[in-house]
């Protein structure tokens, strides 16, 4: 089930465009979704057993704040909606034994930095492996050499629409997979993605 991380980052960038001069423009058909996403400093992510598997507000880079309306527990349909083919993605999630998911979204109101973490729990490690392998096989962007995180991982770099750079780190531990997407302009810091990935894999 392939998630389009660049779309997540684009929506987040558009959500804080009013605070950041020159932020990427959100396409008209996505504008209504982005407008509802507002950074809220000083608050925690929605409570859920899976919330411990995403970064807390005090663990992300300084000045980044959670987007509460875009964060929280998600069902298979919501996760499949991040894919270019939601129907096929939903079928793949069911085949792989989807058991639950949680999304954490962060943005920096004063810069183009955005962070999205999607954690998905499967019924078995085999299902998680199959899902991650299918994602890795069709992921786009330049492979970035990096030490392995969790049981298996892949780090990629690609340009963001409107300028900037997006890092996508996919990794697995046991029956859990993560997608961590970190965007910034002009470039995104690889160490930020790797630090957060190691932190989360340690909790899996």
Q: Can you walk me through this structure?
A:
The protein is of the alpha+beta class and 204 residues long. It has a single domain (5-201), classed as 3-Layer(aba) Sandwich (Protein Transport Mog1p, Chain A), CATH 3.40.1000. The protein has six helices and eight strands; from the N terminus they run ααββααββαββββα. The chain has helices at 5-15, 28-35, 76-80, 86-96, 125-138, 190-201, and strands at 65-66, 72-74, 98-107, 114-122, 142-143, 152-159, 165-173, 176-184. Strands 1, 2, 3, 4, 5, 6, 7 and 8 form an eight-stranded antiparallel β-sheet that branches. Helix 1 packs across helix 2 (28-35) and helix 4 runs antiparallel to helix 5. The protein is globular, with a radius of gyration of 16 Å. It starts with a helix and ends with a helix. The model is unreliable at 10-37 (pLDDT under 50).
Give a brief outline of the structure:
The protein has 204 residues and is an alpha+beta fold.
H/E topology pattern? HHEEHHEEHEEEEH
Q: Count every helix, treating DSSP H or I runs of 4 or more residues as helices.
A: 6
Question: What do we call the CATH topology?
Answer: Protein Transport Mog1p, Chain A
Shape, per Cα inertia axes: globular
The number of strands is 8
């Amino acid at each position: 089930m392939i998630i389009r991380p660049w779309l997540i980052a684009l929506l987040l960038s558009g959500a804080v465009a009013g605070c950041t001069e020159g932020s990427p423009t959100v396409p008209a058909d996505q504008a209504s979704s982005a407008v509802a996403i507002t950074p809220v400093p000083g608050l925690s992510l929605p409570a859920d057993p899976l919330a411990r598997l995403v970064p807390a507000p005090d663990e992300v880079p300084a000045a980044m704040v959670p987007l509460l309306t875009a964060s929280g527990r998600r069902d298979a349909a919501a996760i499949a909606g991040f894919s270019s083919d939601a129907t096929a993605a939903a079928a793949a999630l069911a085949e792989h034994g989807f058991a639950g998911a949680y999304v954490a979204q962060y943005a920096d109101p004063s810069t183009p930095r955005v962070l999205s973490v999607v954690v998905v729990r499967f019924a078995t490690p085999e299902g998680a492996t199959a899902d991650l392998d299918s994602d890795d096989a069709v992921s786009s962007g330049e492979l970035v050499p990096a030490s392995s995180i969790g049981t298996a991982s892949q780090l990629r770099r690609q340009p963001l629409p409107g300028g900037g750079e997006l890092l996508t780190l996919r990794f697995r531990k046991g029956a859990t997979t993560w997608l961590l997407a970190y965007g910034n302009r002009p470039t995104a810091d690889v160490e930020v993605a790797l630090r957060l990935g190691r932190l989360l894999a340690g909790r899996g």
